[in-house]
Write a structure and sequence with these properties.
This protein is α+β, with helices and mostly antiparallel strands. It has 21 helices and 16 strands. The protein has helices at about 20-30, 55-70, 85-125, 150-155, 190, 210-260, 285-295, 330-340, 375-385, 395-410, 410-430, 430-455, 465-470, 485-520, 520-545, 555-560, 580-585, 595-610, 620-625, 630-650, 685-725; strands spanning about 5-15, 35, 45, 140-145, 160-170, 175-180, 200, 265-270, 270-280, 300-305, 310, 315, 575-580, 590-595, 650-655, 675. Helix 10 crosses helix 12 and helix 11 (about 410-430) runs antiparallel to helix 12. It is extended and about 115 Å long. The two termini are about 35 Å apart. Belongs to the V-ATPase 116 kDa subunit family.
């Protein structure tokens, strides 16, 4: 659907005594998007959470903390009901889980300390010297650390404060034993090592040999790791036994907290409350009937308005029933509010069924699109959710983005992989975003297969076209990757421009319709949108006319007139109306044509509608040319696939002038003509040939994977850019509010 689902603003008014059953009923229906009361009505305040809300919130925090400790996920439970003693059970689980978690933390801390000691002792084990020999001396100093051996010996030998020394090494470790002179400082070795990259290690205090000490520490480390495993196993057992129960409790408490905090959005007095919100118009009667069944006539429910928002944010409300506000728009409401502000009288809300000043908020947006187009809502929302008053562009993205993507890749092999990848994403992930991208990938892959068939291409090879269409080959001919087929490259460039002109026209036409229905009226639509339509089409029709043909590329007139295709199109006729004489034009006779007048008319209308937009007069040309990126990606992707196949299979020029790959399915080999490039499959002899063959398989697989991935980034990003910048910019703003009804979908608990 181009329009969001119709929404109604409803009001529920009643006494404080029935507020709890009203909240419970509305929550159970999961239909009403509540409006937030801003405290502006005289005599009304925001409500307060119901009694016991803090206690429920604390329990919810406790349960979620347990779920986090146990690393629970939502798919690890079956729905069920809660027993009466669930709070006692939660407390027992909390006590045991906290004990185990604390025990695990203590063990991990002990393990960390052991690992630190191992790190400190391990270097000494490399020296092979007992630790008690490295300390406790009065006449000599001992330093152990890591650094460049030769440099350490040089600086120690050069020190005036050291009269004798000896070094011991093991691996990267150096031990320096030095006797200092009588006038030496307190740390002569350290003084000597200043300027040397030396990491000092403190000598551990133990009577054991370093290797024995390390072995003892390693044994202790293993014991601690076993203890952690035991704790983790017990926590896993608790998780297996209690996952369903905890998730049911968490869901019930979440519902209780939602209901307890709902009055914060209400306008309340000591005796009454008013709750307002938005609901799909078709659901109003179900809401009203449910509330009547729950509390009878103790509340009054009114459908205040059915929203109809124009693109400039003005609200038009309908007089729906006696007792609600009459039809008016935002301009009238703004005048009334301004008058109230000037007289320092606040807005009033009536609780006796009379006219009410409603809470000011725009309706949320519920996008309604066919199931096939539903995945593309994620791409639209990546820019911004549609406002309630806007056209939803999802259906247009569904119709055009896969088309652009498929044309840019146009290969059956790649298309099949895109479809399979998309199907896996769609079926295997619970995330709505990922599953939506999977749906998009499947559609893009389907169009890639479609255009791949028309090009007769399978992983860059063209034999598919001859298999499907006989000797004539694929209907769309070639992609134009060689000088001999350059005309085809020009053809796809012009096709890309045609895509762009049609796409841009759709955008401007949508803007035109929007302006007529909800904006400036017919004249405003003509000046604001019609002007761009005239300029766009006038300019591009002129491009294909003979006027000034000496400065236009020749392929504009020859590509579809015997060049790539013989369609009989050599451009549009001149369409001249009259010629301005040379003495007036100063540059020779100037032919005034219909396309020229369309552009001038568009500029004039644009100046009337909004002169500032004249600064953007080049947009119709610039945005049209931007679609040339479609052909650029088509050629780039085809070229990369061609290079991969050429490296692997090589190519031969036959007597007929053909240059096919020397692949088995082509029926051509080195004996069929002059070899243009050997290819990895045909290089070398004997064992060398086997090596090149294996390398060829690797290049074939990795090369096409790279082309596949680059196809996603290049075709995907370029296609999205054309949608977001060139297309959406014509009519779409976004910024809508998501429909978030007050309620909860039960997945683990039952009423």
């Amino acid at each position: 659907m181009l329009r969001p689902e119709r929404m109604s603003k409803i009001s529920v008014t009643g006494s404080r005594g029935v507020m709890s059953p009203v909240i419970e009923t509305v929550h159970g229906l999961n239909l009403v998007h509540l409006s937030d009361y801003d405290g502006s009505w005289e005599g009304f305040d925001n409500g307060t959470p119901v009694e016991g809300a803090d206690n429920v919130s604390e329990k919810l925090v406790t349960v979620r903390a347990l779920e986090n400790t146990l690393d629970l996920s939502a798919d690890e439970a079956e729905p069920g009901t809660l027993e009466e003693n669930w709070e006692t059970r939660v407390e027992e689980i909390r006590t045991r889980v906290n004990e185990l978690d604390d025990e695990r933390s203590d063990i991990r801390e002990s393990l960390r300390q052991v690992e630190e000691r191992i790190d400190r002792v391990a270097p000494f084990a490399e020296l092979g010297i007992d630790l008690d020999l490295l300390s406790g001396y009065d006449s000599v100093d001992v330093v152990v650390g890591e650094g460049p051996h030769a440099q350490i010996e040089d600086v120690v030998a050069a020190s005036d404060e050291i009269r004798a020394f000896e070094t011991f090494t093991g691996g990267d470790i150096v031990a320096v034993v030095a006797a200092s002179t009588d006038d030496a400082g307190s740390s002569p070795i350290d003084d000597a090592l200043v300027g040397v990259e030396f990491t000092r290690h403190e000598v551990p205090e133990t009577d054991q040999t370093p290797s024995s000490y390390v072995d003892e520490l390693e044994e202790r480390k293993r014991e601690l790791e076993y203890e952690i495993d035991d704790v983790d196993a017990e926590l896993e057992q608790i998780k297996a036994n209690e996952a369903s129960f905890l998730l049911r409790v968490e869901e019930e408490l979440s519902i209780d907290v939602q209901q307890a905090e709902a009055p914060l959005q209400f306008a309340t007095t000591d005796r009454a409350f008013i709750a307002e919100g938005w609901i799909p118009s078709d659901e109003y009667e179900r809401l009203a009937a449910s509330l009547r069944d729950a509390v009878g006539e103790s509340v009054e429910i009114e459908e205040l308005e059915r929203a109809s928002y124009d693109r400039h944010g003005k609200t038009h409300t309908e007089e729906l029933q006696e007792g609600t506000q009459t039809a008016k728009d935002d301009e009238e409401s703004d005048d009334e509010n301004a008058a109230a502000a000037d007289s320092e009288q606040p807005q009033k809300a009536m609780t006796d069924g009379g006219s009410a000043v409603t809470m000011s908020d725009q309706p949320p947006t519920i996008q309604k699109n066919p199931s096939a187009a539903k995945p593309f809502e994620a791409l639209v929302q990546a820019v911004n959710r549609p406002k309630y008053n806007e056209l939803d562009p999802t259906i247009f993205m569904f119709l055009t983005f896969p088309l652009f993507f498929g044309f840019m890749i146009s290969d059956v092999g790649y298309g099949l992989l895109y479809v399979l990848t998309g199907f896996y994403m769609y079926q295997s992930f619970d995330s709505p975003g990922i599953s939506s991208l999977g749906g998009v990938a499947m559609w893009c892959g389907a169009f890639t297969i479609f255009f791949g068939i028309l090009f007769g291409e399978f992983f860059g090879l063209h034999e598919l076209g001859y298999m499907l269409f006989g000797d004539a080959g694929a209907p769309m001919g070639d992609k134009g990757l060689s000088p001999a087929t350059l005309d085809f490259a020009f053809a796809w460039l012009l096709v890309s421009l045609l895509f762009g002109i049609i796409h841009l026209n759709i955008g401007y036409i949508l803007d035109f319709v929007e302006n007529i229905q909800h904006g400036h009226g017919l004249w405003g639509a003509i000046t604001h949108s019609g002007s761009w339509i005239l300029m766009l089409n006038g300019l591009w029709i002129w491009v294909f006319t003979p006027q000034a043909s000496d400065v236009k590329p020749e392929f504009l007139f020859t590509t579809f007139d015997g060049g790539a295709f013989d369609l009989g199109f050599s451009g549009f006729p001149l369409m001249d109306i009259f010629t301005v004489p040379s003495d007036i034009a100063y540059v020779g006779g100037f032919e005034v044509t219909i396309p020229f007048l369309l552009v001038i008319a568009g500029l004039v209308l644009l100046a009337i509608g909004d002169p500032v937009e004249l600064a953007e007069f080049a947009i119709p040309f610039a945005h049209g040319v931007s679609y040339a990126r479609i052909a650029a990606v088509l050629l780039a992707k085809g070229g990369m696939a061609f290079v991969v196949n050429l490296l692997v299979f090589g190519s031969v020029e036959t007597d007929a002038g053909e240059r096919p790959f020397m692949a088995p399915w082509t029926g051509y080999g080195p004996e069929d003509g002059q070899v243009m490039f050997d290819g990895l499959f045909y290089m070398g002899d004997g064992a060398v040939a086997i090596g090149f063959f294996i390398l060829g398989i690797l290049v074939l697989v990795v090369g096409h994977i790279v082309v596949l991935l680059l196809g996603i980034t290049s075709a995907g990003l370029q296609g999205i850019r054309l949608e977001y910048v060139e297309f959406f910019g014509k009519f779409y703003e976004g910024g809508g509010k998501n429909y978030e009804p007050f309620g909860h979908d039960r997945n683990h608990s039952e009423d």
